[in-house]
Structure formats: structure tokens, C-alpha cells
Fold AraC family transcriptional regulator.
Amino acid sequence: MEIEWRIIKIVSNDDVLVNAPSNVSPKNPLTVFSDRSERPHYNVPGLALYARRDRLSRYGYHMACHWHRDLEFIHVVGGRTSVFVNGEVRVLGAGEGIVINSRRLHYLFSDDGEEAQFVSAVIDPALFGAMHPQLERAMREHDGDDRADFVLLTADDEEDRRLLFGIDEFEATLAGARRGAGANAGTNAGGAGGVGDAGGADDVGGVDDASGAAGATDASGDAEASLDLLRAVSQAARLCLLGLERMEKRPEADGSGAGSGGADGATIGQAAAVDAEVRGRSRESFLNMVAFVREHVAGRLSLDAIARAGAVGRSECCELFRTHAGRTPNDYVTDYRIARGRRLLGDSAMSIGEIARECGFASPSYFSYVFRRRMGCTPRDYRARERAGDDGARE
């Protein structure tokens, strides 16, 4: 099927334009930056902050592997989940958490289908870096590739508890700000309806009074919602500070061989630099293959085509996916197609058949079969559940 493509969104001079089908709702446009990272679907449009209380089952117990320039903070409040970050896997239980540094490949999963409830906060450090060059430099110094990929958090440590509680407070504040914005929109709509319902000259005074009272209420509500947003920004800055100051420098980053001196230390440092260059090239190949998958998800994706996108052979392609995504290319493609299907089911008015084609499935029945096997429900049931009020799905 021929699909008409259009440009959706551009955010800054560093961004690249992303194609998307013209029949997809613009409710949550996808933005991909030039470094292949993705922009999350923030709670309040235009403000680079995201927070949500979530559960692993919403993602079929296996999130799609993704990355973004935002810092991510996760607090597990119930159950257990495994977390993959740049090739390393850790298990988090209730009361534990993790801070994931900027531009790190990551996802949550449970191989045995165990449920986990967690609070997730996503904050773009550029929100604060744009305020002053020194702030931007501080962010870059601590979220670069020479810093730790993640920091684990436990309830036994006082500093960790501050971060864990901070994640919860940030989510509650941002949720309140979003509810306030929605309530104010509803109040404004209701006020307009009241004026329209008024009839006759005798009612004019009453309408004016009601309109004035509604205006005062709206102003008060707007002010409170604005304060909630200000609180959220303040809490986000605190989380960034507490998280970034824990991101230690890698031992090999200074080229000294983890503190070794003399010629031996220099040799070790040079070897580390070569290893870092090789890792960088392999990561670039992997990201090019991931970008190819996402750009061609609606079509047929063969292993040969994916490998060519990364300028590698079939075996190296499989090895790179195992290293950087913890799964085979085929599993990654399936995971991404299901994740895209979830998003379209929640955010668009497309039919099940249209979504199946858009996600690269040969037929609606096969899409439903794979979706149900992964998610435990049919696409139709998933859409009904999302529209019943469980909105804000993310990848």
C-alpha cells in the first residue's frame, strides 16, 4: 500500500525531520534527533518533563529498546522488574530504583511475566542547560559517554531515599498540574455553554454575573496550575542535581589507565582509547540499523537489509543487537512493531487493519495473534482500555 508521508515536527537546529503517515493523529508526534534519540511524549506540551505511575503489563512485560537525551528516574513501588542499560542487566525490587544517564539504550522487562508497578520520571537536561552556558557545561560534563551509564538506588541509603521520594513527589506534582490544566479547559468550555443557554433580556444581568464569577474561578485555577508547573520544574532541577552528581567518571576516561602512571599507564590508556573508538563505531552501526528498522517498519524487513544499513555482515548484525539491545534483530523488530501498534491504538483513529499494515503485519488477524500473545489482550480490547482513561502510553 502506498503511504503518503509528511513532516511532523522540528524542535531545534540539531533535530532531524521525521516522516510519519498522514493519517496518524498529531496528538503525540514523534521527534527523532540527529543522534537517533527520541523525544518522549511529555505530559504538558512544550515542557520537557514527563512523569507517570505505570505498570509493566501495559508493555506486554517487555518495553521496546529505546533511548533519549533525557535523564530517566525509575522507582519500583511493587513487584520486580529487570532493567537493561547499554548491555548490562539489573533486577529491581520494590523500594529500589535507578537513574539512567542521557543517551543510553534501555528498557524494562520481565521474562516470566511478573508484574511490576513503578514511577518513572523523564527530564530533558537541556531545559536547564538553555538557561546559561555554565549550566549547559555542567550538564554536558556529567551526562557524556565518559560518565556512568546508570546509578542504582536502594531505600537503605539516605541519599538514595531522597531521590526515590523525589521521583514520587515529582510525579504527583506533574499529575496535579495536568489535571488542573484539564479542569480549567473544562470550566472554560462550561462557561461558554452557560452564556449560550441564557435567554431573554431579563437574564442578561445573571449571565454577566455568572460569567464574571467563572472568570475569577478560571484565573484562580490557572494560577494554581501554573504554580504546580513551577513546583514541577523546581523538583526536576533537584532530581537532575542529585542524579548527575552521582554519575561518576569512568576510570579509562582520562586516558591514564585507571590511575596507572608511566609508560605502562600510557599504553593502557591508549588501548582504552582504541577500545572506546571501536565501541563507538559498533554503537553507530547499531543505531543506524535501529533507525532503518523504524523508518521501514511498515515494509518487509530482512536480516540482510538491516545488516546493510549498519554496513556489517549478518553475523555481526546479530551480535550487535545482542550486545546493545539484549535480543535478536527479529525479536527487536517484533517488539518495535507491537510498541508502535500500542501507540497507534491509543493515539489515532486508524482501524485495526490500517494499524496492522502500518506496523508491517501481513494481515489484521496475524497482528491480533502476535499482539494478544505479547500483551495478553486483543488490539480492540487494548484500545478500549486505553480510551477508558488509562492514557499517556509511551514506548
In short: The domain at 274-387 is CATH 1.10.10.60 (Arc Repressor Mutant, subunit A). The chain has a mean pLDDT of 77.
